[in-house]
Write a structure and sequence with these properties.
single chain, 314 residues, alpha/beta, Arginase, Chain A, 8-stranded parallel beta sheet
């Protein structure tokens, strides 16, 4: 199936110095992708990103926060949140490149150019409208959702599925009362893991009650639990019949991740992604895959190649 992959030097700088989120995973990914031979497949198209205009970022983020990121990016030090997300010279441009790639991926999928598109340096689901959080500078997902609502219509039906080990608080809370943004988030229980949110009773508010599903998993949950709830996510998708799916496919739920306590295998993860992609085919809609977390660089890089192989095989 025709698939679009965003990759370039600026985009693949996303990460932080002396930090769990290292750009090494993108270096390994380039290496493994080259070795795989997939770049010779005519159905895989690569594209470069660009630095998003401030007006695009401002669809989700406040102007004072954008200015703060710019300022700390220029001076090259400081904290963008309470301690997890440090600034460095050029961080604004790197983060803005991630926003551009995700929005462009969404545009190309909605326009029908590609069924699947990937921004592996996207999926920064902890950034709030006026702050960074959890290694996330700009929330490319939030920007993309706001872009879709402005471009298509406020009631455009968007399904956001999140299988990162951490709850996507920066997507859930800003859209908690929006009945047209559907969310299915499978993550480690917030009692044991940052950001401490995403409990089962959080199902949206007001007119959006029931349009959101949070699935907190106990520590050491594995493939059985993941696959069970991904099946539920796919049923949820069929019930609501969205126009597009955004998948935050963070790999920090894989066994051995140094920051989390889940126990997925690569096979279990790939089977879960397969179920979601096949649901897209059944519904006749496209999907944008966002890389999100994952702190075993070589494992993450190899698994991303496996995801692309899967997309091209469908």
């Amino acid at each position: 199936m025709k698939t679009l992959l965003f990759m370039d030097d600026l985009l693949f700088k996303y990460g932080f110095p002396n930090h769990p989120l290292t750009p090494l995973r993108y270096e390994y990914f380039r290496e493994y992708l080259s070795e795989s031979g997939l770049l010779d497949n005519p159905d895989l198209v690569t594209a470069s990103s660009s630095v998003a205009d401030e007006s695009l970022i401002a669809l989700f983020h406040t102007k004072p926060y954008i200015e703060r990121v710019k300022e700390l990016s220029e001076v090259g030090y400081g904290l963008l949140d309470r301690g997890d997300t440090p600034a460095y010279k050029g961080v604004y441009e790197v983060a803005a490149s991630s926003v551009y790639a995700t929005v462009e991926a969404v545009k190309r999928v909605v326009e029908g150019d590609y069924l699947f598109a990937l921004n592996l340096a996207g999926g920064w689901h902890h950034a709030m409208r006026s702050s960074a959080g959890g290694f996330c500078v700009f929330n490319d997902i939030g920007v993309a959702i706001e872009y879709l609502k402005k471009w298509k219509s406020p009631d455009y039906r968007i399904l956001y599925i999140d299988i990162d080990a951490h709850h996507g608080d920066g997507v859930y809370y800003p859209f908690e009362s929006d009945p047209h943004v559907y969310i299915f988030d499978i993550h480690e229980d917030g009692r044991y893991l940052y950001p401490g949110t995403g409990f089962a009773h959080e199902e949206g508010s007001g007119p959006a009650r029931g349009t959101k599903k949070n699935i907190p998993l106990p520590p050491y949950a594995g493939d059985e639990e993941l696959l069970k709830y991904v099946d539920m996510a796919c049923s949820f998708a069929r019930d609501i019949n969205p126009s597009i799916i955004l998948l935050q496919g963070g790999l920090d739920g894989l066994a051995g991740d140094p920051l989390t306590h889940l126990n997925y295998t690569v096979d279990g993860y790939i089977n879960s992604v397969r179920k979601i992609l096949e649901t897209c085919l059944d519904l006749g809609i496209g999907l944008v895959f966002l890389g999100g977390g994952g702190y075993q660089p070589r494992v993450v890089a190899r698994t991303w190649v496996d995801v692309i192989k899967l997309m091209l095989s469908l």
